Amino acid sequence: MFLLRAAEGPRWMAVFLLLAALCCLFSPVVMVKHENFKTCEQSGFCKRNRQFADDAASSSWVSPYALDPASITFKDGQLAATVLKTLKEGEEKVRLPLIVTFLESGVARVTLDEEKRQKGDIILRGDSKARKERYNEASNWAIVGGLDAATGAALSAEAEAGYTKVFYGDGGKHQALIRHHPFSIEFQRDGETQIKFNDKGLLNLEHWRQKVEKVEKVKVEEKKEGEEEKKEGEEENKEQEPQGEDESTWWDEAFGGNTDTKPRGPEAIALDITFPGYEHVYGIPEHATGLSLKTTRGGDGAYSEPYRLYNADVFEYELDSPMTLYGAIPLMQAHRKGSTVGVFWMNAAETWVDIVKTKSITNPFSLGLLGKTDTETHWISESGIMDVFVFLGPTPQDITRQYGELTGFTALPQSFAIAYHQCRWNYVTDEDVKDVDRKFDKFKIPYDVIWLDIEYTQEKKYFTWDPLTFVNPTKMNEHLDKRDRKLVAIIDPHIKNTNDYPVIDQMKSKGLAVKNKDGNDYEGWCWPGSSMWIDAFNPAAITWWKTLFKYDSFKGTASNTFIWNDMNEPSVFNGPETTMPKDNLHHGNWEHRDVHNVNGMTFHNATYEALLERKKGEIRRPFALTRSFYSGSQRVGAMWTGDNLAEWSHLHASIPMVLNQGISGFPFAGADVGGFFGNPSKELLTRWYQAGIYYPFFRGHAHIDTRRREPYIAGAPYTEIITQALRLRYQLLPAWYTAFHEASTTGAPIVRPNFYIHPEDENGFAIDDQLYIGSTGLLAKPVTQEGADSVSVYIADDQPYFDYFDYTLYQGAGHHTVAAPLEKIPLLMQGGHIIPRRDRPRRSSGLMKYDPFTLVVVLDKDGNASGTLYVDDGATFDYQKGAYIHRRFGFDGKRSALTSIGLGTKGTKTDAYLKAMAKVRVEKIIVVNAPSAWEGKTEVVVSEEGAKESARRKKVAFEYFAKDGKKAAWAVVRDPKVGVGKGWKIDFS
């Protein structure tokens, strides 16, 4: 967010208001201020390690790291050893404890620490209160399971000179080949190397050394011309120029008027990780770039900067850039035909990742392909231990599942959270909120949630309401609740530092704020002006934070009020790179540099816990949106891509950004529909809504200086077209909710790129402008170009695909032109799937709770189809006790029969839930690509479990529609009267 503040005085105010009005007439240009953010050259540790890589490129380079074979021990699936770093001749070698753990899941974990720091055997500069160890607690925040060591892992019985080999994984099909000198590791699957550590010799752990003030005494022997004569023997002190390594940023580093003191000195950790034979790598969000990551060492179409992971408030970020954004997930996947592998670099400090792709020639005489492409990556973090997880796949599904087992699966949200959210900065009064709500009803536009940005507070003091504009928030919430709608209010981590504000008084008195390097409460500048930041690393701070959300504390909120955490990178307006100084101190005296990327998640976690405990006995699934995130944030809420622009290019970029979040374990993602900054044209707004219905998190949002753009304002025909898009989202909510359930149990993305669905299709590995919704077979290609009236949809297989609306057939691998006039949403259905939906239009999702279902059965080329449906109460945690319906539907082409089979397991609340849902039925079945043999049929036979004898086999009306040109034949069974929670069978033969 960005706000111009008017100068005081009536004349200046008049000028300001005039300028503000004029600004509203124009869309802003890209205004990212590059000078506010470091390049690698300006980041000391990144510059040093890039230079280290350049030095290592020489043919004579030998890595100074070697594993001491005499130190190796192996027990209970864990190998421990010592890696020795050789320094200059005559100097003691640096001892680096190595642990390689082989997990039951088939994942390997490699950690490397520094013995001196580990033991606290170092001296901090000055009077620093910082910890002496390398930061080793990122796993406390990121990891929640999957760490059981593999009892079947074993050292190879065959000793190999200079190597240690470990067999692990299912049936020992994985191998870790550990080279002693120079130290490196190859990870193999079925005897083929998939991932290499330190193959290029770029491992570089900057060991502790004490700062030595190098001063040289220089005797003045002769007077230079123009100098004043000095007395004989007069001496001057002259600081010696550093020799060898560049020490200029070892101890202090200045940027943007701030000096970062480094009491532990240089402590970066870097490693090269190579993916041999893999041309495409994905992941490491968040960046405004394509799904398949580019190289970063210059050249045509490449970046010259590494991808940066350093959570920051980047104002009006630019596209096609490796520049850092709001969140960091250091998970990278490499993909080739038939194989997906990955690494998770668990480090919470500032991190840079270089990517280089090299082609190796395997047969110089070949007239076809000359070789394979290797992707070489170089990971560089400022501090902390090296802690890397290795995933050997071999499928994309294996990677997302194993990563999810470690960091947690996506939280299953309340059902309202996956419907449409209406937001802007700001709805100005409680009456304004109610008026917007009424107008959505007046125009019959569905929505579920309305949001409040910072202006609802009294003078930017969180947990308060402005008494002049939000006079009766309780009545406002009651108004929304009658329509089964929700309110989301923003709460940020900066607390206004002012008098007569109990929240800041309590935070100070309890010592719960982040500290500066001297151990005093850190004071910075944010929306309220002078502010302090809650230290959510402190358990006592979390305990206190939870009390603030209780209904009798945060008066005016109710059970339909939920929370938005913004600015939690943290954003500090007067801080270096718009964030906190790195030498600030958090709970346990860890420096901010150690924990920066996980900071936003700790605050998000605290808010989630607070929402769980608002009222004793009232437990609902929380909804908490975050802007800043790290691995594990998916466990507690949703994210969005931050402050985008109302431009076609930003609409286009949102698709790969959301897809990348999904394959990186945080699929509950979206982008501000319409663009946050600027005023979209009516065409752009309409197309953005048509794309936004495919974001897992679907919210319209806008800057305070933009014109109002609620869907009903656009006018004909745009309002009607946007409304139809919103109704499509609501119609398909059963499919979306089922996809969310799958994500919450398997880690699978909610929206999926082509390579995830078709991992064998090499032509589709870089495609990132279309997506599949869960396991439904729904393939969407949003229109992201101005004036377009068609799109080119890529089909990867030979299955038939059908237009969702009129069943037009598209078949054959390759690109297909699909008509897309403004009123048309390009959406295809892949043959072989059964799609659940609810067809009755409602004004909010809560009102659909007991509506009947429609099943769309899309037959594949062999006449078969299958699909699932998951339903629960959409609000509580009762599903964990069996209160849900989970069915698998299958159509068998040979038997010409559709069946419903239960997938759930019974719990203590199963019977009560099934009783509550007993009257919810399947009211319609549509079969697309219906066999011609059905033509002339007028009825089908329906059998249902538990039905009375007379109704156990009943005949139901059936209608067949023949093929019409390119439009497939289809058939419909109207109201078979089968319960959605029961087993049943429909015979079409």
From TrEMBL:
Residues 1-31 form the signal peptide. Residues 98-354 form the Glycoside hydrolase family 31 N-terminal domain. Residues 747-835 form the Glycosyl hydrolase family 31 C-terminal domain. Pathway: Glycan metabolism; N-glycan metabolism. It comes from the Eukaryota. Gene3D superfamilies: Glycosidases (3.20.20.80), glycosyl hydrolase (family 31) (2.60.40.1760), Golgi alpha-mannosidase II (2.60.40.1180). GO terms for cellular component: glucosidase II complex. Keywords: Endoplasmic reticulum, Glycoprotein, Glycosidase, Hydrolase, Signal. It is an enzyme of class 3 (hydrolase). Residues 220-233 have a biased composition (Basic and acidic residues). Residues 411-739 form the Glycoside hydrolase family 31 TIM barrel domain. It catalyses: Hydrolysis of terminal, non-reducing (1->4)-linked alpha-D-glucose residues with release of alpha-D-glucose. Its main location: endoplasmic reticulum. InterPro entries: DUF5110 (IPR033403), Gal_mutarotase_sf_dom (IPR011013), GH (IPR017853), Glyco_hydro_31_AS (IPR030458), Glyco_hydro_31_C (IPR048395), Glyco_hydro_31_N_dom (IPR025887), Glyco_hydro_31_TIM (IPR000322), Glyco_hydro_b (IPR013780). GO terms for molecular function: alpha-1,4-glucosidase activity; carbohydrate binding. Its EC number is 3.2.1.20. It is found in: Endoplasmic reticulum. One of its GO terms (biological process) is N-glycan processing. Residues 854-899 form the DUF5110 domain. It holds the Pfam family Glyco_hydro_31_2nd. Residues 220-266 are annotated as: Disordered. Residues 234-250 have a biased composition (Acidic residues). PANTHER family: ALPHA-GLUCOSIDASE (PTHR22762), BCDNA.GH04962 (PTHR22762:SF54). Belongs to the glycosyl hydrolase 31 family. This is alpha-glucosidase. It comes from Pleomassaria siparia CBS 279.74.
